[in-house]
Write a structure and sequence with these properties.
This protein is α/β, with parallel strands linked by helices. Helices cover about 30% and strands about 20% of the residues. The strands form two sheets. Strands 5-4-3-2-1-12-13-14 form an eight-stranded mixed beta sheet, sandwiched between helices. It has a six-stranded mixed beta sheet with strand order 8-7-6-9-11-10.
């Protein structure tokens, strides 16, 4: 049970807590200090567990991964949602028919066609001597003999002959399109996520599990998949330059990781 003054903090990873998997020292120290002061701090990311650097996950009390589909807190898995079987088979079949380069994001690995793995290796090859996201992503890639049978939480689209929004529309209201959480690109890149699942669900579940009212929660993010959790959190913190939909729910605006924004937030909110 939380102490009366304790807060629950959920932070996005890419673009909020880290910049291309590089975590500022000030952010590491901020998490440690907040936890030492009795607060609960979780990572809340669109990434699946398979591509979250172990050293990053170890900093936190728990992880909300796959944009809210899975929640792990203090060594216990509270929820682990995946695409319904029929919808999953239909989705994978549609992507294969269109020649889409994609990865099925599961907790243990990223499952993809051989052509998609080759594309990712080429696209993520470091141009400046830095591995950036390449190590965590490429080491998690796996081929499967039958991708239609793989359980997964969401899908990363790395190249598509049609906009990702059109793919989502073809699948129906159960699926929505979002920007990719670990790469930037145009309408022909992105993610396909279950409409019924959101980071907000992870935040709500963590608060309920800890017996805390949502007013005691703090959500920190920079992108469209953070809008839901900022909207319901007691305090919403947005990284400057974020989309207008996110900024509508920001009680505090902070610099990006290059400006130690997460540490700035915890300091201004009195947690460290």
């Amino acid at each position: 049970m939380l102490s009366p003054d304790a807060r629950i903090v959920l932070t996005d990873f890419d673009g909020t807590f880290a910049d291309y998997s590089v975590i500022p020292d000030a952010h590491v120290e901020a998490v440690r200090a907040a936890r030492e002061n009795g607060h609960v701090v979780l990572l809340c990311t669109g990434r699946s567990l398979a591509i979250i650097p172990a050293e990053a996950a170890a900093l936190f009390d728990g992880v909300v991964s796959s944009a809210g589909a899975r929640v792990d807190l203090d060594g216990e898995t509270l929820v682990d949602e995946v695409y319904p079987e029929e919808l999953g088979r239909r989705t994978v079949s549609l992507l294969l028919e269109h020649g889409v380069q994609f990865a099925l994001e599961a907790a243990d690995a990223l499952y993809a066609p051989a052509s998609a793995i080759a594309l990712m290796r080429k696209r993520l090859a470091p141009a400046d001597g830095s591995s950036r996201n390449a190590d965590s992503i490429l080491s998690a890639m796996r081929e499967s003999e039958d991708l239609t049978r793989v359980p997964f939480a969401k899908i990363s689209i790395w190249a598509s002959p049609v906009p990702v929004e059109e793919l989502a529309a073809a699948l129906g209201p159960e699926v929505r399109a979002l920007p990719n959480s670990v790469a930037t690109g145009d309408a022909f890149m992105g993610e396909l996520q279950l409409t019924a699942i959101d980071k907000a669900d992870g935040l709500r579940l963590v608060a309920e599990h800890l017996g805390a009212d949502l007013s005691r929660t703090i959500a920190v993010g920079d992108g469209m998949n953070d809008v839901g959790m900022l909207a319901i959190a007691g305090t919403g913190v947005a990284v400057e330059g974020g989309p207008a939909e996110l900024m509508e729910h920001a009680d505090l605006v902070i610099p990006p990781p290059s400006g130690d924004g997460f540490a700035v937030a915890l300091d201004r909110l009195g947690l460290i």
